[in-house]
Write a structure and sequence with these properties.
By secondary structure, the protein is an alpha+beta fold. The chain has 2 helices and 3 strands.
Length: about 60
């Protein structure tokens, strides 16, 4: 199954509450922090909502 490495590259400070909440629910707490998630439609939707704040890489596991 494909995995996604999601890295927070920009602070959510100053953005809408729902975008801050999405970053938090992705598991990102600090700048340049990364998490690995499964490539599922729910995660892709969350990424699309905060695409201006994160960097996404596809990895194989």
């Amino acid at each position: 199954m494909k995995k996604l490495r999601i890295t927070l590259i920009k602070s959510p400070i100053g953005y809408k509450y729902d975008q801050k909440d999405t970053v938090k629910r992705l598991g990102l707490k600090k700048l340049n922090a990364s998490v690995v998630k499964d490539d599922v439609p729910q995660i892709r939707g969350m990424i699309r909502k905060v695409q201006h704040l994160v960097k996404v890489e596809e990895i194989e596991e």
